[in-house]
Each structure stands twice: as structure tokens, then as C-alpha cells.
């Protein structure tokens, strides 16, 4: 997953919160809706997830019951996320240590459909670990969760190289990554868009992130 304190020092965290909530409030049909269930994949220590919930709570009709579930593969980060939930919203935010690529039987989330899925800066990890097939499987897992997906993919090759160097420097681990299974003649974004399209999703809007660390874009894909 993302490294520790990822959302504690990223200057674009506020941008992500604002963009995610703007998309939901403007593009999602909330008419006569009594409950809004959200899933944040790769929630890290919960800072971004908590921020999204709090801002949505201020934007949306108070009669709408908003729930958000954050999942991350790192148990230490999930433990920190659970400890850091705002006291006044504690029962509306849930954190679980799960790998979206392989959710075990017995978890309600395994077959649950959410109104909205958020996925910020996660796509590089399954891509590095499992190659192009892994990236394709990851996106298909997102489409299994919702018809309304807000995603900020990592598409910079420099970012991939930095992650490999970091793993080698900190853990002396590089052999887990499968560069040999990544076709670099095609940009990761092209692959992501192709998988969404094959699953019946359409790119509705692209949101710019001027001034953020990587200048990454946020995309809204909706099931047609």
C-alpha cells in the first residue's frame, strides 16, 4: 500500500478531499436518497477518508445517512485509522484491513455494492506487483464494487521507479515487482481507460490538480 504518513504531508490532500466531494455533490444523483455508502480503497491512516466524510457531511442534506468504509492492505495503518476516527462521526466511518484483490469469504464487503468508490494513488501497486494483468484485475475489482468510481491513477513512470528504489533502500526488496509483465509502450492510463470501457463504464469528467505534487488528474467513470 501507500507509505506511512502519505496523507499527512501531501500538500494536495485538501485538493483530493475537495475534488471527491465536489464530484459526489454535483454528479451523483442524491434526489430522494436516504443513504449514501462510500468505499475508499487504499485508505492509509484514514486522514483523507475522514476528511471526505466530514466535508460530505457539510455538503449533503443532513437527512442523508452517509457511511464510508476505508480499506487498506497494511494492518498498522488500519489500526491507526481506527484510532484516529473523529469521535462525533465514529459510528459512520469504518476501517478494515483487506486486499481488494482478494477479499476472503465471510466479509460483508466481498459482495457489497457501494454508491461511490474512491481510489487515490493506488493503481501503481497492483501494476508493479502483478503486471498488466494485475492492473486489469484491480480495475475490474473496482467495477465490482460500484457504478460510480472516482479514481486518481499513478501513471508516471518516474513514480514507478521511485517506488522500486524506495523498496530496495528500505527493505532490500525489488524482486517482488514484475516489470517484465508491464508493456511500457502503452501508458498505464490507456490501459485503465480500456478496462473501464470493456466493463461498460464511460469517462464522464477529468479534474485537473494544478499545483499538486505530481499534478495528477482525477477521473470520474460511471457505468452506462
Q: Secondary-structure map with pairings?
A:
Elements: H1 6-9, H2 13-27, E1 35-41, H3 47-59, E2 65-72, H4 75-83, E3 93-97, E4 116-120, H5 124-145, E5 148-152, H6 157-171, H7 188-198, E6 201-207, E7 218-223
Parallel strand pairs: 1-2, 1-4, 2-3, 4-5
Antiparallel strand pairs: 5-7, 6-7
Helix pairs in contact: 2-3, 5-7
- Unreliable segments (pLDDT under 50, ≥5 consecutive)? none
Q: Outline the biggest β-sheet.
A: 7 strands, mixed
Instruction: Write the CATH homologous superfamily of the largest domain.
Output: Vaccinia Virus protein VP39
Query: How many helical elements?
Result: 7
**Quick one: CATH class of the largest domain?**
Alpha Beta
Q: How much helical structure, as a percent, in the residues?
A: 25-40%
- Please name the CATH topology of the largest domain: Rossmann fold
Tally of discrete structural domains: 2
Describe the model.
The chain is built from seven helices and seven strands; from the N terminus they run ααβαβαββαβααββ. The protein has 224 residues and is an alpha/beta fold. It has two domains: 32-109, Rossmann fold; 113-223, Vaccinia Virus protein VP39 (Rossmann fold, 3-Layer(aba) Sandwich), CATH 3.40.50.150. It has a seven-stranded mixed sheet, sandwiched between helices. α3 links the parallel β1 and β2 (65-72). α2 packs parallel to α3 and α5 (124-145) runs parallel beside α7. The longest helix has 22 residues, at 124-145. The protein is globular, with a radius of gyration of 17 Å. The two termini are 30 Å apart. Residues 18-224 form the Bin3-type SAM domain. It comes from Corethrella appendiculata. One of its GO terms (molecular function) is RNA methyltransferase activity. Its EC number is 2.1.1.-. Keywords: Methyltransferase, S-adenosyl-L-methionine, Transferase.
Amino acid at each position: 500500500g501507500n507509505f506511512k504518513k502519505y496523507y499527512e504531508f501531501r500538500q494536495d490532500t485538501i485538493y483530493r478531499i475537495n475534488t471527491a466531494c465536489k464530484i459526489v455533490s454535483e454528479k451523483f444523483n442524491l434526489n430522494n436518497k436516504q443513504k449514501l455508502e462510500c468505499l475508499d480503497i487504499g485508505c492509509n491512516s484514514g486522514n483523507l477518508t475522514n476528511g471526505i466524510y466530514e466535508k460530505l457531511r457539510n455538503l449533503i442534506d443532513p437527512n442523508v445517512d452517509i457511511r464510508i468504509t476505508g480499506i487498506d492492505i497494511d494492518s498498522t495503518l488500519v489500526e491507526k485509522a481506527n484510532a484516529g476516527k473523529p469521535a462525533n462521526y465514529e459510528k459512520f466511518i469504518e476501517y478494515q484491513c483487506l486486499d481488494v484483490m482478494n477479499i476472503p469469504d465471510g466479509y460483508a464487503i466481498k459482495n457489497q455494492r457501494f454508491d461511490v468508490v474512491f481510489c487515490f494513488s493506488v493503481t501503481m501497486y497492483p501494476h508493479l506487483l502483478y503486471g498488466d494483468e494485475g492492473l486489469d484485475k484491480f480495475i475490474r475489482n473496482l467495477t465490482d464494487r460500484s457504478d460510480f468510481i472516482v479514481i486518481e491513477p499513478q501513471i508516471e513512470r518516474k513514480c514507478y521507479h521511485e517506488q522500486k528504489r524506495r523498496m530496495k533502500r528500505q527493505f532490500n526488496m525489488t524482486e517482488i515487482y514484475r516489470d517484465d509483465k508491464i508493456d511500457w509502450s502503452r501508458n498505464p492510463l490507456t490501459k485503465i481507460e480500456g478496462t473501464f470501457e470493456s466493463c461498460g463504464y464511460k469517462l464522464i469528467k477529468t479534474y485537473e490538480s494544478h499545483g499538486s505534487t505530481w499534478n495528477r488528474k482525477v477521473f470520474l467513470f460511471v457505468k452506462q
